[in-house]
Design goal:
Blueprint: H1 7-36, H2 43-67, H3 69-82, H4 88-92, H5 98-129, H6 134-162, H7 166-169, H8 172-204, H9 208-212, H10 225-228, H11 232-236, H12 243-271, H13 285-293, H14 296-309, H15 313-323
Helix pairs in contact: 1-2, 1-13, 1-14, 2-3, 2-5, 2-14, 5-6, 5-8, 5-12, 8-12, 12-14
Length: 344
Amino acid sequence: MVVQLPDGALAAAVGVQVYSFICLICSCLMILLVYKHRERDSYVALFSYCTFLGTTGSIAQQLHTIVLWNDVKTEQFYHVRNHVGSPELAIAGPSYGLDLILFYIQFYSYNVEAILTLSWAFSLAFSIFKPSGLNLHQRVGRKISIFAKVVAFLLPAVLISLLQVPAVRASTAAFITLADFNLAASLTLGSITLITILVKYIQTRRRLHRWTVRYPLSTDLNDNSGESGQDSDSVHSIYDGWLVVRFTIALLFIEAFQILAILSEIAQVNNNKEEVLPEKPDLSAGHAVVDFVEYIPGVSTGLLVFLVFGTTQACKRTLYVSIGPKIRPSGEKFHHFTIPRVEF
C-alpha cells in the first residue's frame, strides 16, 4: 500500500503516532489497575475507559490520514466548499465521511469525561463537608453517584443526536451552543466546586488524607488511624492522601483542553468563509505537520490519567506484581500483597 503523506511530514506523523500509542498503553495500564483493585465502576475506571475510546478513535483517524492523505484532503476541500457556513465545520473542521465518524467518537469521549469530572467534584465535596446523618447521606450519595455515572454516558449521546436535527443545524448559534454547553457547564461548575473544596482545605489546614479517608475507604468513621495516614486499607488503596491535588491537576488539564477547543472553533468559523477559502486543496507537508500536531491534546488524557492517578504507591506496587520482573526487591513482600476492594 502506497502512503500518500508527504515525505516531509512523515517524521511528525510517526512521532505523534508513537506518542498516541504511549497514551493508549497508559489507558490500558489504568484499566488493568482498576480491575486489579476491583474498582471497575469507579470514576478513575470510567475515565480510563473514555480515554481508551477517544485515543483509539484518534489513532484510527491518524492512520487513515497518513495512508490516504491526498484523497482525504481533497474530499475535505470540496466538502467545505459545498457546505460553506455549516455550523458543523466549526466543531468538526473539514472532517468528512469516516473521519467525521471518528471525530464524533472522540467528541463523545470528551463530553463523558467532562460530566464525570463534575460528578466526581460533587462527590468529593459531599465527602469533605460531611453532612449530618452521614450514614443515610452515604446511601443516598451512592445512588446519586450511580445515576450520575449513567447520565455521563447517555447525555453526550443524546446531545450528539440533537446536533443532527435539521432545525439545530440551520442555526450556527444554536448548534455551537448545544455542542459546547455540556463541556462548558460541567467544567465551570466543577471548577466552582473544586475551589470550594480547596478553600475548605486552606481553612482547616488538615492533611488531604484526613479528608479522603471517608470518601474512598470503607473504614470506621471514628477510627483515629486516619490521623497518621497509615491505616491498612489506605496503604494499598488505588487512592492516596493526595486525591484532591490529583483531581485538581486533572481538572486543570481538561479545562486547558476546552480552552484550546474553543479557540479552534473560533479559528474554524473564521477560516470557513467563502472569501478566505483557498482555490485548491493544500496537500503540503507543512499543512500535514500542523494537522498531526493538533491530535496531541486529545490523546494526552490517557497519559494524564495514568500519571495523576496511576502513580500512587499501591498502583506502582500492583503494576510491579502484574507486569514487572519476578525478582522481589529488598524489603518488599509482594507475595503477601493483597488488593482490597474499595467502595467508591
